[in-house]
Design goal:
The protein is an all-beta fold and 212 residues long. Helix content is 0%, strand content 56%. It is built from no helices and 22 strands. The strands form four sheets. Strands 1, 3, 4, 6, 7, 9, 11, 13, 14 and 15 form a ten-stranded mixed β-sheet that branches. A hairpin with a 3-residue loop joins strand 13 and strand 14. The radius of gyration is 21 Å and the shape is elongated. It starts with 7 loop residues before the first strand and ends with a strand.
């Protein structure tokens, strides 16, 4: 839509939803797209033939992705300026470790999403997003393995093994509500170790491991 001579801007401050069929809907090359609301692409693809910018208040929802027969949900010919929330979802029962596919492509990109929703999958799997020079790639990974903690003179010794080269954040809590980050790692072999000296003086402590 919107073909003409002059340049203009489509500013979405509400909800834009693409859900009609497997085909591609296109915006003209003179129409830049700014998303400060919610932009959903449920089926098929949305192609923007100019620039795309998402503000801090915006949400980009790329839904019903198929890791077995991938289809790019959002194709941006120009530059993608990224901020705000990335929300993704996969079709059920299709994800398997080792799958890698593009959910969005662009001519170039700046910035990054401030938060990401939908990365945890069923069956002990999760999605690791990677922003490359021309695409948002999603990688299906297995959740990390926590080994049995060891009691040492210096405190609990925690060890885990996750996907190699992935950044992991180890958090701790005494009430499962308030969490404190203990360490952030990015191990080439996926192995992580932390000795929690505070465990010596606390009656109880809970731990969680999350990708960065």
């Amino acid at each position: 839509p919107g073909y003409g001579i002059g340049a203009y801007v489509f500013h979405n401050a509400g909800t834009l939803r693409k859900s009609a069929g497997p085909g591609t809907t296109m915006l003209a090359s003179q129409c830049a797209f700014i998303n400060s609301g919610r932009a959903e692409v449920r089926t098929g693809a949305l192609q923007l033939n100019a620039a795309f910018a998402q503000t801090a208040s915006g949400t980009l929802a790329l839904q019903n992705l198929n890791p077995v027969a991938p289809q790019v949900r959002l194709n941006i010919i120009g530059t993608a300026a990224l901020d705000g929330v990335l929300e993704v979802s996969l079709l059920p029962n299709l994800a398997a470790p080792g799958q890698t596919f593009a959910a969005m492509t662009y001519g170039a990109s700046t910035g990054s999403f401030s938060s990401r929703v939908g990365l945890q999958l069923d069956g002990g799997l999760w999605l690791r997003p990677a922003i490359t020079s021309h695409a948002l790639m999603l990688n299906v990974e297995s959740v990390p393995t926590f080994y049995t903690p060891q009691v040492t003179a210096d405190g609990f010794k925690l060890q885990w093994h996750g996907a190699p080269g992935v950044g992991w954040r180890l958090d701790a809590s005494t009430n499962l509500v308030d969490w404190l980050t203990l360490i952030s790692t990015n191990s080439p072999d996926g192995l992580g170790v932390y000795i929690d000296s505070d465990s010596l003086v606390l009656p109880r402590r809970y731990y969680r491991l999350a990708p960065q």
